[in-house]
Amino acid sequence: MPLLDIKNLTLEIDTGTQVIKALDKINLTVNSGEIRALVGESGSGKSLIVQAISGATPPNWSITADRMSWNGNNLLSMSEQKRRQILRKDIGVVFQHAIASLDPSVTLGEQLEESLPDQLIEGSWFWQRAQSRRKVVINTVHKVGIKDHEQYLRAYPHQIPTDIGQKLMLAMALISQPKMLIADDPTRGMETTTKVQVLKLLSRLNQTRSLGILFVSHDLLAIASMSHSMTVLYCGQTVESGKMKHIRKRPLHPYTKALMDSAPSFSKDLPPKSQLPTLAGTIPTLQHLPIGCRLGPRCPRAQRACVNVPAVRKIHDHSYSCHFPLHRDKV
Amino acid sequence: MTKVLNVSGLTFRHSSKKRWLKKPEVFALGPIDMQVTKGETIAIIGQNRSGKSLLAKMLAGAVEPDEGHIQLQEERYWSVKHRVARKKADITGIRMIFQHNSESINPGITVGQILDEPLRLNSSMAEEERKALIGDTLVKVGLLREHIYFYRHMLSDGQQQRVSLAKAILPDPKVLIADEPFAALDPTIRSQTVNLILQLQKEMGLAFIFISHNLGIVRHIADRVIVMDKGQIIESGKTETIFRWPQHEMTKKLVMSYQSLIPQQTMREPD
Amino acid sequence: MSRFSLYDDEAHPSPWQHTWRAFKSSHIALVGLAVLLLFVFFAFFAPLVAPYNPTYQNTEALLIPPSWAPNGSIAHLFGTDALGRDLFSRIMYGCRVTFGTSLLVVIIAMLVGVTIGTIAGMLSGVRSSVVNHLLDALMAIPTLLIAIIIVGILGSGLVNSMWAITLALIPQFVHHTRSFVRGEMKKDYIQSSTLDGASNLQLFYYSILPNMIEMLVVQGTLALSIAVIDISALGFLNLGAQAPLPELGAILATGLDAGYLAPWNIAIPGVSIFLMVLSITIVGDGLRSALRKRVNR
Q1: Which of C85, C87, C103, C111 has the alpha carbon at shortest distance from C41?
Q2: CATH topology of domain A33-40+91-320
Q3: What is the pLDDT of residues C213-259, one digit of tens each?
Q4: Do residues C197 and C232 make contact, with C-beta atoms less than 8 angstroms apart?
Q5: Looking at the complex, does the CB of residue C187 fall below 8 Å from at least one CB of chain B?
Q6: Where in the cell is it found (chain C) (predicted)?
Q7: Superfamily of domain B3-101+174-261
């Protein structure tokens, strides 16, 4: 049974003047022990999905889905409390620019200790609890690969380098021993060496603890090196989804191909200083979403049929929604 | 193979004037030597705090070096030893664009006014001439002439980056310096911007020096790569040479971590 | 289904129009603006509109109640005071004096304060910090107190009280301008303008001022409400406008004498001052939220 199962999630935002379909029939599954990449540029709705899962939605949003369940329990029909509990215990979240999401006036050790849920602490007297808190924190910090815990636990957020900061955010997310981790672009803006460290850490955690990871990003190099499967999002629509190696070998949707082309490292025989193959145009804003397949205005293969939203088709485990996918010539 | 930029002995030491109540900065950069030929693309890579941004700012004139000189084509552009002060805003020489963020373009004025500024301050062109040049430049970077009436908040990220680019190439400079120009952009917009810069290089013979962490883009568009660490150039050479046969420890580290991300090596099955 | 629009063209409003639209959306702010505009009208056109001369004493019409009371007459809309002067005309002229002088005071304080603040913000170094912190310390003292002290030195009278309040209002303009300019100078686009060769003055006029106008308008309305209160207070304490000059605070003070017999002589000037300050505050508040909405788009 998949950990997170979302089928046909639609999110409508009522702005007073119009109703915008920010997310249009999104499908997403994360299995236990699987690293799924959620790929999309700005405006694709990646952060909206994270918000919809967490339930912290403003009143003018309306969420409908055929299925949106966590471990079998329907998230939509759950009470506020139960949902918050799940978020606290079972799902950990890591954001971009770790250091900015930490309290700048409190040392890191204190913040980590604060985020411990009570169940994991043993001892009945308060000094026992304080000791056990400290022990759990040190353990988790070691697990994320920081050996010199004394120095860093005593430091303040502005004094630590970025990679340590990101690892500490991971530690905070992992402290409640979640089953799944949502990583919202954790390697954004990082230099390569730091990025590799964080990614190695994530895959190690995934292997040793069978931790499911939902890796939201548009950094294709990072994703391609460690994800098992990928879901590609464009303007709130799922365009392709499947195993990483299948998609890399043979992308079926023109948008996926454009994304792959944007990283020159993926194409082996590109002459240096040549023009990169790109899609014309820009990403449409929420107010001006095209009807039907939202890539329509930009897609080089678009024809009349593209004014209707294409149905989801599957080839083995690889699903795509396009009227004129790449493995078939334009009719 | 005309040499368009010749830098020698460029140095920056900690703030020489110890101002009362101000801590002196302790970063030391240099001495830096480099040559750039016309139409060449040079990438500066290195870890954080290695001095890349400082070098870019010194080349562009935003920070005063303590020693050394910069020679642009034939003339002495800037020199401490010979007391040649930089011609106040010689804008046809070296221009710079910054990383895209919320502070790279003035939000309170229109695109037309933003682009008019370097011309208004430095040239004696009449207003119609300026307007014509601005319109032409906008078209060159892939925007419309009507965009002169737009404010910053009406443009997307990629378009804002294009406006910065237009402002930089407006006076037809010889060298363009960019500090992480592609970092904050989405992949498809990044490809468009890269293509635009390549095209402009071909059209204008522009030399392009840029700083980046994205080694994939570096490998694709750079002719030469300069690797910096702790304020020194530790290695420099042709792109392929650096990527295939890195010599210095730090270069090896950078190239190895980049290689480890390329998917050939690391494909695993979920358990 | 979104509304069908024939033209794909959309109007792209300038930052000003955006602010106005956000301001319009609050009904309270619009009501405040309407009342404020009424006062501005009085400030400029009182001599043309007032029914009587405010200093004309009609000895036959002493202490007539306002027109809505049973003994009142429509000839004197708000009644008369102990010397037979028509209250309505006095109020109109009073608004003219109070509001007019407050406006003048705020404009002068803004010009001086912005100049000092800009220079302080653009220069760096210890000297500017010292000056600024001195002025900041002045901000801790209530403006009315500073004004009273200055009036004590210069002597009473409307002009002296105007100078006093101007001086008391300058520090806050200096403070806000300085911190704004300082923040702007660090931004990338200012640095690139400097590289293009802009002098400090050109930087200020072309690059910083367009962004600063909004902040100035907000600070200006704040200062205006303080100025109105202080001028009326000084008038009430007989340190500012001297009789027979109609000024709302002074009218209030003279009304106190016959307070029990003719409460309208106190209530109506008081309500006018209250409405004036309220409308200025509401408009200032509306502007502030409109600006915040525009920034947080």
Answers
A1: C103
A2: Rossmann fold (3.40.50)
A3: 888 988 999 899 999 999 999 988 888 877 778 888 888 888 888 88
A4: no
A5: yes
A6: Cell inner membrane; Cell membrane
A7: P-loop containing nucleotide triphosphate hydrolases (3.40.50.300)
